Each structure stands twice: as C-alpha cells, then as structure tokens.
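Hi P.,

Sorry for the delay on this. The queue was packed all week, but I finally got your sequence through. Input first:
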Amino acid sequence: MTDISHINRFLLCETPDQWIQTALKNQPLLLLDHANCEKKAASTAINLMCRYVGDFDMMHKMSRLAREELRHYEQVMQIMEKRGVAYEQITPGRYAGELRKPVRTHEPGRYIDTLIIGAIIEARSCERFAKLAPFLDDELKEFYLSLLKSESRHYEDYLKLAKRAAEGKDISDRIQLFLSVEQELIQSKDDEFRFHSGVNYSETV
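Then the structure:
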C-alpha cells in the first residue's frame, strides 16, 4: 500500500468514522459522486492549462493529471455499469464551492490559491480512498488502493506549483487558511452525502 503519512500530516483532520459508515451504506451514490469528482478534477486541470499558458512545467503536469483523472472516471463508470448503478444528475456538494470562497481575485494570488485548493482536494481524496478501502469488497478495495499513488502525486504537484508560483514568498498562511476551511467542512454536518461531504445527520440519504 502506498504510504500517505505525509498527506495525513498535511490535513488538519482525518475523515470522521460517521462519514465512513454513511458511505458504506450508500455505495451507489458514493460511486456516482466519485465519478463526478474525477470528471471535475480533469476539467480543473484543463482550465488551468488554458488560463495560465506559458508555464511548460505546469502544463505538462496538468496534462498528465487530466489524462489520469479521465482514466479514473472511465474506471468508475465501468464499475458502475457492472453493478447496475445508474449515472444520474445529482447536485454538487458544498465542499469545493466553500473552499473557493477565500480565493483572491488578483493575480498571482488567484493562481496560487487555486493550486493550494487543488492540493487539498487531492489530499483529501487520497485520505478517503485509504480510509474506505479496508471496509470495501475486494474489487472496490483494490481499485481505491490503486488510486493512492496518483492522488498523492497530484497533491504534491499542486503544492509544488503553488510554492513556485509564489516566487519565494511564504504561502504557509494561505495554506493554513484553506486547510482550516477544509477542516470545518469535513467535521461539520452536511445536508447531503457526497464524496467530500462532512458528516451526515442521517445515515441514510
């Protein structure tokens, strides 16, 4: 199993057990929102490539990331089809939208903050894959564990790009700001279950 101890040290909290229990009881919805997350992750990478042209290292990293996320999207869809899980439209959770609220409107602040958020989302995804895996059937367990290496690298790529974009300026305060927002989202109650939701007041959704 890929070592993700550095990710657990980075995040301010671990996924609550209550979220795990809700996820296990709502696996079709888990898979559906997971597929949406992979699609959105690819879209985010492509948007960065289009908006911030000229940085070859970033564009190479985001191109690879987008391809990997789309491949994961295809893999989740295959599992859904195999299990008879319909691909339906569902509303997005509050997680990403709330994380983006503190993003600065000027550059390079906006770019740096967007990269920090990308790192946090990838880190949380990796942490949740690892925490869920032991409770899943063999097929899903193997699949989620196979994602740890790439998700961990995506987290590292985003964070390295954010630090480089800062051109030597300390961005630890920005990282901590977004991590604090993320911690609140993960530990607080949510109205609906999603892959990145907080805890649910009900075990059934």
